[in-house]
């Protein structure tokens, strides 16, 4: 009986951690001083060059969540032609982790919220998974960084 309760508890903890895996906190590292530590991992479903926005979707079973954020600045991602990367250069279906700050501002006496992406990490590219040890953090913001533990 005790083994059964322990097993059930462990499975519930594992299931709850998997269902909330799309939101998280950034690992310790070098980030801009104003970064709050929020990340969202999902699959790129849409991009818009005019607003520099990226839409990510996370799905697991019946649970689905959408994240929309816009780049603070062009990302430091190398391109073949040497020009700054556009969000449309990221193929749909790419697994991506967005490091972002959530902001709320008032526009015409209405509160509007936005997610400002300050960095990205590619978890896969063109359908090929990128091993965790090989993933790079590409900054999409200007300014200096400093070590932050989250």
Task: Summarize the SSE layout with pairings.
Blueprint lengths: L1 H18 L3 E3 L3 E3 L6 E11 L4 E8 L2 E9 L23 E13 L2 E13 L1 E2 L2 E2 L7 E3 L6 E3 L2
Parallel strand pairs: 5-7
Antiparallel strand pairs: 1-3, 2-11, 3-4, 3-6, 4-5, 6-7, 7-10, 8-9
Biggest beta sheet summary: 5 strands, mixed, barrel
What Rg, in angstroms, do the CA atoms define? 18 Å
Provide the spatial order of strands within the biggest beta sheet: 3-4-5-7-6
- Uncertain regions: pLDDT < 50 for 5+ in a row? 1-21
How much of the polypeptide forms β-strand, as a percent range?
Answer: over 45%
Using the alpha-carbon principal axes, give the shape: globular
SSE arrangement, N to C: HEEEEEEEEEEE
Describe this structure in words.
The protein has 150 residues and is mainly beta. The protein has one domain (22-148): OB fold (Dihydrolipoamide Acetyltransferase, E2P) (Beta Barrel). It contains one helix and eleven strands; from the N terminus they run αβββββββββββ. It has one helix at residues 2-19, and strands at 23-25, 29-31, 38-48, 53-60, 63-71, 95-107, 110-122, 124-125, 128-129, 137-139, 146-148. It has a five-stranded mixed beta barrel with strand order 3-4-5-7-6. Strands 2-11 form a two-stranded antiparallel ribbon. Strands 8-9 form a two-stranded antiparallel ribbon. A hairpin with a 2-residue loop joins strand 4 (53-60) and strand 5 (63-71). It is globular and about 45 Å long. The protein starts with a helix and ends with a strand.
What are the defining features of this structure?
five-stranded mixed barrel, OB fold (Dihydrolipoamide Acetyltransferase, E2P), mainly beta, 150 residues
